[in-house]
Amino acid sequence: MTPNTSVPKYFFSLDAIRGFAALIVVLCHWQFFFYKDYTVMTSTIAEMPLPLYSWLSMFYNHAFFAVDLFFLLSGFIFFWFYADKISSRETSFNNFICYRVTRLYPVHFITLVALVFLQAMMIKVNGRPFIIQNNDAWHFVLNLLMIHSWGFESHPMFNGFNGPSWSVSVEFLLYLLFFIVSFKRLQHKKVWLIGFVIAGAVLQHFYSMIGQGIYSFFLGGLVFHLYKWLITRKNTGRITMIVTGIAVFIWLIVLTEYAFSYIRNASMVVFQHLLPGKSVAFDTALFDLSRNTFFRTFVSPATVLSLAMLETTKGSLKIKWLQVLGNASYAIYLIHFPLMVLFALVTSVLGIDRHVFQSPFMLLLFNAILIPVSIATHYYFELPVQKLFRGRLLKKTQPVTVVLKDL
């Protein structure tokens, strides 16, 4: 690795953690196999016979932070790569939206179509769909237009077909909002960006999906501005070590708290004194909210900032398989749900008891299929389709460096 104080052309480390985040989401969704009739959650995650739960409980219970990380990474990368180009009119709306839609749409479309058939078969075999309801014509149209998490759906938690694609719909909305912000030359105005973060937090109370996306995306933009400021300081290498040390320290607190709950226990005592008369459930909910806000606002940003700083000052650690995993992360994220429906169908048709999903070997088999299929989808479907449509939709294609495979 060679020292470098200029912004890299590609953040390998950020791409790699996106791949791991996608696999964490897959692990969390394994709980779906233990829902009553593949529909209703009747027990807590801790009570489910999930494979390797004692080792992987942190990921099973807190995988929603991984989706936050997707939005955070997108914000960081977009403010780095696109904001000034849009502001200076170097990148037009047509160019921007063409590249973004052709990035999101191909895999979204094929998984949507696949689930039309898979869910129909699931209803025929088991009498009900797998987890996601509202697989009707209206929700198909919303999914087809990628606006199925914009408030038009019957219920935010049941937006039809490929449930995890709610974040794709929100991401599409964020693209439009980001373009407006950059076109209006607000991308460097920190007050505006902080305002969007606050607005996202407030909106999340009323519509969690869009609020979550706005909060984390624009927080990612602020993290980029902090990164850009830090790499222009003197003693950048020393600053990098300090930032990395802070990130490691925060992670040590997170991991030890998860193992021993010492902060939770102390917080319960404090809450009882400060908020007498409140129930234990209220105090627990308050702690969980504080913990989640801390993780989203400090732990994930500190992690992204430290990795970006390390890659800038120490050089890129180019590990091929990590790059391949990162490139395939979007496909992993969208393909895993239809693959789960297929697994549920096969076991139902063959009369195999659902206890089979308790086995670590079944989890291993699932990922052994998912990961190669997703990699092949990325290289032999996503990229060729993107090239085809970008060439046809853009009269004069402007060369755009592929940076980070943004969700």
From TrEMBL:
Cross-referenced InterPro entries: Acyl_transf_3_dom, Acyltransferase_3
A molecular function (GO) term: acyltransferase activity
Transmembrane stretches, start-end: 12-32, 63-83, 103-123, 164-183, 190-207, 213-230, 242-263, 330-349, 361-381
Residue intervals of the Acyltransferase domain: 13-375
Source taxon at top rank: Bacteria
Pfam families, sorted: Acyl_transf_3 (PF01757)
Keyword Transcription: no
Keywords assigned by UniProt, alphabetized: Acyltransferase, Membrane, Transferase, Transmembrane, Transmembrane helix
Identification of the protein by name: Acyltransferase
